[in-house]
């Protein structure tokens, strides 16, 4: 699709660039300092969980289902928290572990377990290369996706292979083709609901294909990070098929390791993290983690389950979060429509939950838009961050994180983004003619 600037004659284009440059100079003079980079809730939003902090005191009963939460023991997590983890991730509580405050760390440790020790009796992934003429272990990375996932596998020396993310999840034709042909592909990163950053939710067909596809690697694993499983903006949320049911039906129960946390429910970085897997694999993960952990912070788990005893309580709490998030997402959509409709310069997603909007400008624009926004006082997530190794092949994608700024600041930041996209698009149109 052509941008409006590509369709202008030379005189019109030069005038448009002059006008946009003048507007950029005006914005620079305002010395704005706005941040749309951070995927974290605003301070007022976090504050709705403060009452949780009053639920435990020196006089409180510190037991849960007979477990003394004030002492070592119960490595797998307290009974009420495991029941909640089971509800979050769609498994029996016995197939869960409730651990510390970060799901990302559990994800890291789960990949590291496969790398160092292997899984279900298969050789450690770290030995694959030597046994296969130097072929590398690879992971599929739906892109745009979550940079910290890609960072975990990159850090271990695993090769990150991008696959196109669609509105129904990863491009499954491509995924099936790749995993069937290459024994070195050992896993895929998935954020199946309100994906980071597109906000899209995997279709039932995608979930079924992922769990039933033929993989050359017998120890292929789906890392199912359901970080946004309860993060609906509207009463009617996206529905996600139960991945464990689908995997069991396909006879691939051991293929899935699922994660979630309360980071964006209670306190980011101070919530509780959950992991779920088949009975065999969860036992394996527990065994691996127990080498380095006597028991997690059960008092924090207790505080959480007293505040959010079941999924209904979680949903009620999330409706309060949505009151902060909804106007911000609606502001993003309205401002982008207002500024860019009819220009042919951009497309963006329309999530019904989660934390991000994914924005695409013309080819070769994203890095320049990021730099221009920075000059105008607006910080965006670095362009390229949503792709493995920070390399967006077409340099189009920008992750918009609307949660932290006030609606007023967000509105100003989006005006700056729109202006930057227009100027860069016009400059690209001019450069094409040179
Ligand atoms: C998809 C996804 N997974 C995990 C995390 C981090 O979760 P935690 O704080 O539980 O480590 C984030 C944070 O933005 C995320 O977007």
From TrEMBL:
UniProt GO MF annotations: L-aspartate:2-oxoglutarate aminotransferase activity
Keyword Transferase on entry: yes
Statement: the UniProt record of this protein carries the keyword Transferase: yes
Keyword terms of this UniProt record: Aminotransferase, Transferase
Protein name per Swiss-Prot or TrEMBL: Aminotransferase class I/II-fold pyridoxal phosphate-dependent enzyme
Classification of source organism: Bacteria, Bacillati, Actinomycetota, Coriobacteriia, Coriobacteriales
